[in-house]
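Practice problem: Arginine kinase
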Amino acid sequence: MADEVDSLYQRLRDATESKSLLRKYLTPNLYTQLKGLTTKFGGTLADCIRSGSENTDSGVGVYASDPDAYTTFAPLLDAVIKDYHKVSELNHPNPDFGDVEHLDFGDLDPSGKMIVSTRVRVGRSHGNYGFPPVLSKEDRVEMERTTVEALQKLDGELKGTYHPLTGMSKETQQQLTENHFLFNDSDRFLRAAGGYRDWPTGRGIFFNDNKTFLVWVNEEDHLRFISMQQGGNLKEVYVRLVKAIRALENSGLSFAKREGLGYLTFCPSNLGTTLRASVHIKIPKLAATPDFKAFCDKYNIQARGIHGEHTESVGGVYDISNKRRLGLTEIEAIQEMRRGVEAVIAEEKKLGGGN
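Answer key — structure tokens:
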């Protein structure tokens, strides 16, 4: 094991072109301090740095082997987290979803001309299991079983069906992927980190009858909860997600959290609220201006192509989402996204778009 971590670290040091946060913060002194440590789940420094050492073009480059890694390897992970999330201290507040009975927003685009769809998602980790690098096949199957038991207790509009990946027909897989419902095993960064071990065992997707609430089981994180629908009604989407989170917590699932970091996930880029609220929105005029990125930055929102990070826009439609996940509450993150989207809509109209 010592040989593996040494050779991984050597590859990282040799990659002088690498701009990853892992390379920036894993100094020789820190490496010596951490390389012999093991978490209570059996996670090692090699598990955390494998992906970033094999893919030296990574942006972050480090994954947590398990929830305990955030304590055992804190000198490295804390530095990466502060830099990535642009915070000087790790003092994430306690969860606060706001008063969902009295929200001061509803449909952000009542005309229906600009917002195509709205989506809010969060990641969650089971508190008593490690992350992909340290999980056994049996762990994955057991995690899936306890998750499905909780999902089957959902009622009302959340009631739905679980579809395991194991045994799923190619046609069903294709259809669900095209509908942006299903995940796949094609990310090389995640593969190097051990994210696809035992694929597709222990993995699957749950969705309600209206296909407005989804749960991904054992994709990158143990769980991803996703609330979504056509149009711009952010209130309906957010309230549905909050109800689902509360129902699942009440049905016996406990999620990994740490003081100052919020909810813990496999990748340190997604800690804290873990909340990403987004709209697919038609903004061809604003997107064509040279100051588009600066405009988004001003409101702490981020614009991507509709097929995810590093993709191009299609027909002037962009994915606009909140940028900050750490250091603010869930309701603050939603309000930040909402104000950003409202500003984007107003600016597009000012430029003669939005018709």
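Discussion: The mean pLDDT is 94. Students who identified this feature from the tokens alone can consider the problem solved.
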